[in-house]
């Protein structure tokens, strides 16, 4: 199971040395809203090196190596990886990479998380490793240029559970591709990176309009970039599947390869700061009304009080090394209170997730 590390980024990054963000890299990111987004574009455009399309396969040895699940140093493919058991198949790096396939496990190729048909294969978008990943060729082909979404009734399901079908999230009713939960946050942050790095290009007349008009969730602006439902979907995935150690390693290796970083891995809070006008203010406000008592606590328990009308998807308590101490999903909350007992002295991080937002709090048991 992927280790959830959103709290480590904000609480322990410096002491544990995970992020390896160059000193001063984000010093000019001082604005808010879409001003912040444009500042980030400038930061991540500066130093971006286009190494060419062929170089990606060599780079994947470092950026997309399975050192996290089976730890067998095969290609880490989000469309075939089974995080809770043995994979149905694996690819060795730089072997069986191809463009011809008839079924899963024939070969792997390069998947553009934001489809390259929408930007007519222009560079550096086509070669940008922050959104171009290794993937089974057949699943890549089945995904086509469908947007990502959520599916209730699948017309196709891959070996690892990725699905194609009619979207059931928001007001978009077209065909979408839904990855497994393990990688939804990864994919969301890649798409938000794309919206930031290429904000000036997304409204260009040179984009492939015939393709873009069918499935592309762009809203025609270079500030918001995506349609409301897509921003809300990506934010939901971003909060429910926080940044993992695998993403941090990938971001560091991508920086070594092409000279820029994904800011939403380094600073997950930037997402809500930029797109706050599109996101649910009510849920955000209700989350802020959650109370935790006592904190600090001189007894071995805490009580969490949940406001009325706030739907909770998960409550997780971690210790400082990332181990899960307590977890409940979709809880039934009696009298709007949840009590966590038998806690040992020390520091903890409490993470509470709702539909589109999450809240993290430091807990101290004295």
Automatic annotation (TrEMBL):
The keyword Transmembrane does not apply. The keyword Iron-sulfur does not apply. Residues 292-365 form the Secretion system C-terminal sorting domain. GO terms for molecular function: endonuclease activity; hydrolase activity. It holds the Pfam family Endonuclease_1. Keywords: Endonuclease, Hydrolase, Nuclease, Signal. Belongs to the EndA/NucM nuclease family. NCBIfam families: Por_Secre_tail. This is Endonuclease.
């Amino acid at each position: 199971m992927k280790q959830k590390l959103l709290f480590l980024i904000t609480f322990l990054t410096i002491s544990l040395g995970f992020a390896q963000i160059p000193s001063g890299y984000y010093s000019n990111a001082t604005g808010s809203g879409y001003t912040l987004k444009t500042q980030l574009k400038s930061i991540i455009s500066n130093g971006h090196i286009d190494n060419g399309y062929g170089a990606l396969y060599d780079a994947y040895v470092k950026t997309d190596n399975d050192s996290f699940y089976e730890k067998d140093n095969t290609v880490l493919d989000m469309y075939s990886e089974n995080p809770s058991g043995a994979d149905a198949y694996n690819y060795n790096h730089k072997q069986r990479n191809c463009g011809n396939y008839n079924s899963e496990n024939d070969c792997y190729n390069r998947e553009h998380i934001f489809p390259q048909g929408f930007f007519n294969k222009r560079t550096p978008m086509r070669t940008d490793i922050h959104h171009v990943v290794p993937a089974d060729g057949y699943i890549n082909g089945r995904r086509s240029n469908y947007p990502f979404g959520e599916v209730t009734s699948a017309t196709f399901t891959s070996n690892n559970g990725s699905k194609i079908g009619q979207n059931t999230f928001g007001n978009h009713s077209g065909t979408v591709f839904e990855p497994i939960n393990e990688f939804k946050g990864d994919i969301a942050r890649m798409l938000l990176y794309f919206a930031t790095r290429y904000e000036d290009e997304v409204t260009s007349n040179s984009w492939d309009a015939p393709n873009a008009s069918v499935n592309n969730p762009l809203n025609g602006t270079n500030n918001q970039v995506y349609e409301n439902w897509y921003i809300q979907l990506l934010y939901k995935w971003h909060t429910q599947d926080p940044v993992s150690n695998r993403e941090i390693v990938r971001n560091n290796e991508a920086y070594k390869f092409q000279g820029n970083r994904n800011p939403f891995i380094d600073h997950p809070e930037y997402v809500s700061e930029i797109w706050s006008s599109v996101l649910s203010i009510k849920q955000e406000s209700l989350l802020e009304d959650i109370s935790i008592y006592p904190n600090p606590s001189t007894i071995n328990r805490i009580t969490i009080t949940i406001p009325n009308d706030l739907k909770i998807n998960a409550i997780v308590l971690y210790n400082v090394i990332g181990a899960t101490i307590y977890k409940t999903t979709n809880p039934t909350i009696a009298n709007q209170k949840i009590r966590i007992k038998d806690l040992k002295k020390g520091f903890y991080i409490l993470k509470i997730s709702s539909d589109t937002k999450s809240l993290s709090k430091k807990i101290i048991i004295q």
